[in-house]
Amino acid sequence: TAGITQAPTSQILAAGRSMTLRCTQDMRHNAMYWYRQDLGLGLRLIHYSNTAGTTGKGEVPDGYSVSRANTDDFPLTLASAVPSQTSVYFCASSFNGEGDYGYTFGSGTRLTVV
Amino acid sequence: GQNIDQPTEMTATEGAIVQINCTYQTSGFNGLFWYQQHAGEAPTFLSYNVLDGLEEKGRFSSFLSRSKGYSYLLLKELQMKDSASYLCAVMDSNYQLIWGAGTKLIIKP
Questions:
Q1: Do B45 and A58 touch (CB under 8 A)?
Q2: How far is CA A12 from the centre of its chain?
Q3: Mean local confidence (pLDDT), A80-106
Q4: Pairwise CB contact (< 8 Å): B48 & A102
Q5: Cβ contacts of residue A1 below 8 Å, gap of 6+?
Q6: Cα–Cα distances in Å, from A49 out to A4, A29, A54, A59, A75?
Q7: How far apart are CA B30 and CA B35, in angstroms?
Q8: Could you give the 3-state DSSP secondary structure of residue A84?
Q9: What are the tens digits of pLDDT across the range A17-65?
């Protein structure tokens, strides 16, 4: 089934440790995004990539890094996790970052930093 | 700054009609989206409006007034499975989606 795959589904991480959240899509979408979703707040953009080889900072980029080596993969790395990074993380993709195609979301990664 | 406002929570009765409002102030406008999100799941695309007027898709309709910075999502013949959060999002001049916090819709029998 075409779509976006995120891994892991959930994770408990000790503060100070690093972790990479994986995201892979097979729809040949050129734009990809990482969001975090916290209770009472809207989806907040962490980083995005409009095309392979380019990335940009979103609303809340501090403490996170991304890379986009190819069209399909867009990993999100936490270099040194802190409890405030406890959240649900969603990866999304869209055809060209504009237009009426909408965003397709992965199933999310629930991260708890203790 | 950019802002999307929608009610935090609404309650409706199975079989009835409910309207969820969304007002926005953004830097530019390249369309408005509605997404549905069931608890513990990912958001899924419902509708897209870029021109003023009403777009109908089965039991769901979405309306846009760009001059008023206003949209609504209309759900008819409510079913229990419609219990979810409904997210309003606006694509700004940089083609980035700005998201509202979502409206939790509770359907009662």
A1: no
A2: 17
A3: 86
A4: yes
A5: none
A6: 15, 11, 6, 14, 11
A7: 16
A8: helix
A9: 999 999 999 999 999 999 999 988 889 999 999 999 999 999 999 999 9
